[in-house]
Amino acid sequence: MPFIESFQASDFLSTLISLAAAFALGTLIGAERQFRQRTAGLRTNVLVAIGACQFVDMAMHLSGPEGAVRVVAYVVSGIGFLGAGVIMKEGANIRGLNTAATLWCSAAVGACAGADLIAQAVLLTAFVLAGNTMLRPLVTALERAPRDEASTEATYGVSMVAAAAGADDLQAQVSALLEAAQFPVDVIDQQNRPDGMVELKATLVNTSVSLNELDAVIARLRTLTGVASATWTRSAAD
Questions:
Q1: pTM of the shown model
Q2: Which pairs count as long-range contacts for 56-64, CB under 8 Å and 24+ apart, including other chains?
Q3: What is the pLDDT along the chain (238 residues), one digit of tens a residue?
Q4: Could you tell me the residue ranges of all domains in the chain?
Q5: 149-236 has which CATH code?
């Protein structure tokens, strides 16, 4: 039988050791995710690790290191589809990026085990666990740290409501005033309103501004002829 003829105890033992290592290390990574009630928990991380391990191990036995390298490339790209499934968008917030990255690392751990790089797989697992546990206090401290608006990168915009007549001239005045105040304008959008007014929205190039200076510019914009109101907005930078 082909199976009996091709079976080699040494190869089988090597595969067993690789799968056992991937299973154990995937369990360590997944247990931390399961404890924190993440979307991809214990079983998902274990399956990703042993799946990647088996693909690479099989390529190692069939085609040698060159074949394993090709399979690793497919594992790296293929795991992205699985990671995308745990990323969720809730309003302006995106959740699951860390879990998706952990799945990617679990695949790397499995690939190392499948390539008989057990020591490297153990080392990577230690770094993954450290990233998901030891860095949490630092993340919390950074999130709670007071922020200076002047040093925080963001996208600022200036919105105005003005009479439709003379809107083109007003755009030029607004742009010149902002440029003079060292707030260069990236783009100015104009939207017509049904009440005979227009809304001008200017996006500033600056990602870090002095709010007092911006307030002073807004006060000057309100004095321009035809301007009914003027405000500024702030949104997080990409």
A1: 0.61
A2: 56/110, 56/111, 56/114, 56/115, 57/14, 57/15, 57/18, 57/19, 57/113, 57/114, 57/115, 58/114, 60/114, 60/115, 60/116, 61/11, 61/15
A3: 566 666 677 888 989 999 999 999 999 999 988 888 877 789 999 999 999 999 999 998 888 888 889 999 888 888 877 777 777 765 545 677 888 889 999 999 999 999 999 999 999 999 999 998 888 888 778 767 665 555 556 678 888 888 887 777 888 888 888 888 877 787 788 888 887 788 888 888 765 667 788 888 888 888 888 888 888 887 765 5
A4: 2-144, 149-236
A5: 3.30.70.260
